[in-house]
Amino acid sequence: MTEALNEKLKQLALLKEKYRQLDEQTKRARKEHDRYQDEVYGDLREAGLLTIKTDSGTFACKSTIYAKVQDPEAFVKWAEEQGLTDEFLKQKEVGARLNEYVRDAVANGSPLPDGTIWYPREYISITND
Fold this sequence. Notes:
Radius of gyration: 25 Å
Number of strands: 2
Structural class: mainly alpha
Order of helices and strands: HEEHHH
Strand content: 5-15%
Helix content: 55-70%
Number of helices: 4
Number of domains: 2
Strand order of the largest sheet: 1-2
């Protein structure tokens, strides 16, 4: 192995470690932000302030509602009864399982599922011994 290739592999490992660390920092910062936002939201509401302008920006207390489907079968039935299947429902392939199926089909020379193609992804696996 050449010294240049060895240096490139070393740099690749360093870059992978760097983005893993940044991912962790991002998760921690998001968690801290969300906790602090809850505290400040309470402080603003307690002070009777819905909007406030400061040197750091304009801050506005907002509230919204999100839906969560607890009973998928009941929800699908409701959407069908309302004629809203196109608006509320979508079919989605299960990517990981489809990849596995296609890999097996390619390896065995079997036909692919209708409507699918395959493409290679080349990468370098890095493990720390």
